[in-house]
Amino acid sequence: QVQLVESGGGVVQAGDSLRLSCAASGRYGMGWFRQAPGKEREFVAAQSRSGSITYVEDFVRDRFAISRDDSGNTMYLQMNNLVPEDTAIYYCAATEKIAGVQLRPDRYQYWGQGTQVTVSS
Questions:
Q1: What Å distances lie between residue 19 and 15, 47, 64, 91, 107, CA to CA?
Q2: β-strand 4-7 against 110-111: which pairing, if any?
Q3: Is the Cβ–Cβ distance between 5 and 22 less than 8 Å?
Q4: What are phi and psi of 60, to 5 degrees?
Q5: What one-character-per-residue DSSP string does the chain give?
Q6: Which of 34, 73, 109, 121 is least surrounded, with the fewest CB atoms within 10 Å of its CB?
Q7: Tens-digit pLDDT profile for residues 31-88
Q8: 106: pLDDT strictly greater than 80
Q9: Confidence band of 111 (pLDDT split at 50, 70, 90)
Q10: How many angstroms separate the CA atoms of 14 and 2, rounded?
């Protein structure tokens, strides 16, 4: 059973930074999604299992970065210059069945519990 444990969310002010972590029970293709109140879950960033392919969505590419630790089991989402529109629950997800970078939530088999990020103006 794949387990994903997220951490790092919180309440910050506009312009601040946060780093989210997602600890997995192994090495998988992984991604970050977010869901704001009243909105659909949207893709943020993803990295292939090997770490050789990374994709960050256009609307955050200049502010967010995705990376892993040396073991490859923990994935990070570094978020800089946060704005109120970034307020959402952030979820990490893992896939063990599909190679490459996956942007669709239905491509992931496992999900973390979510961590709340709130950015005040």
A1: 14, 16, 9, 13, 24
A2: unpaired
A3: yes
A4: -125, 5
A5: ---EEEE--EEEETT--EEEEEEESS--EEEEEEE-TTS--EEEEEE-TTSS-EEE-GGGTTTEEEEE-TTSSEEEEEE-S--GGG-EEEEEEEESS--S---SGGG-SEE---EEEEEE-
A6: 121
A7: 999 999 999 999 999 999 998 999 999 999 999 999 999 888 999 999 999 999 999 9
A8: yes
A9: very high
A10: 34
* Encoded amino acid at 28, one letter: Y
Those residues whose C-beta lies under 8 Å from the C-beta of residue 94, and which sit 6 or more positions away, are 2, 4, 24, 28, 29, 30, 31, 108, 109, 110, 111
Q: In the predicted model, what is the mean pLDDT of residues 14-32?
A: 96
Check residue 101 and give its pLDDT. 92
Q: Quote the Cα angle for 28-85-57, to 5°.
A: 40
- Banded pLDDT at 99 (limits 50, 70, 90): confident
The confidence score (pLDDT) of residue 98 equals 76
Whether residue 34 contacts residue 104, with contact meaning beta carbons closer than 8 Å, is answered with no
